[in-house]
Structures are given as structure tokens and as C-alpha cells.
Recover the amino acids of this structure.
């Protein structure tokens, strides 16, 4: 069971990742070992993707990826590889 302090640590780490702020070493270790943080991060990224996809469907012919979305995906791939050693392939 997570404590309130643990919840705050998790929330802070997840928010820093979402805000593209650099994590310190202890935060990286926490994220790498905390299943709750990873679940929350994946959930937030999924929600952001759903919102972006919905907006893109309404506003854009998405037969082509927007350059800023492609650049964001590439940045995320490099960050996960550099920070966590995780290689994420393109769909």
C-alpha cells in the first residue's frame, strides 16, 4: 500500500515527465522501480494521445503526420532510450 508521501512522490515524478522536465537520479530510480508511477505515466500519455487524436480527427486530414507530432515522438524515443535504456519502435 502506498503512503500519502509516496503518492506525492509519484505525482511529482509523473508531472515532471509530462512537463518535459529533467528528472534527478533519485526520481529516475523511483520511476524505473515504481509500478504505480509507470501505470500513471502510461495512463496520462494515453489520455493525451486520445485527446490529440480526437482533435486531429476534427481539425486535420491525418493521412499525414504533423511534423511536430513526429518530432515529439522521436524526442520521446530518444529520452526513453537515454534515460531508461528502453527502445520504443514506431508503429
Amino acid at each position: 500500500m502506498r503512503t500519502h508521501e509516496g503518492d506525492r512522490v509519484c505525482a511529482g515524478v509523473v508531472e515532471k515527465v509530462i512537463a518535459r522536465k529533467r528528472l534527478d537520479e533519485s526520481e529516475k530510480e523511483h520511476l524505473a522501480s515504481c509500478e504505480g508511477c509507470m501505470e500513471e505515466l502510461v495512463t496520462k500519455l494515453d489520455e493525451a494521445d486520445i485527446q490529440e487524436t480526437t482533435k486531429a480527427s476534427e481539425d486535420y486530414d491525418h493521412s499525414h503526420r504533423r511534423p511536430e507530432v513526429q518530432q515529439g515522438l522521436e524526442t520521446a524515443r530518444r529520452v526513453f532510450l537515454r534515460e531508461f535504456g528502453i527502445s520504443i519502435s514506431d508503429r
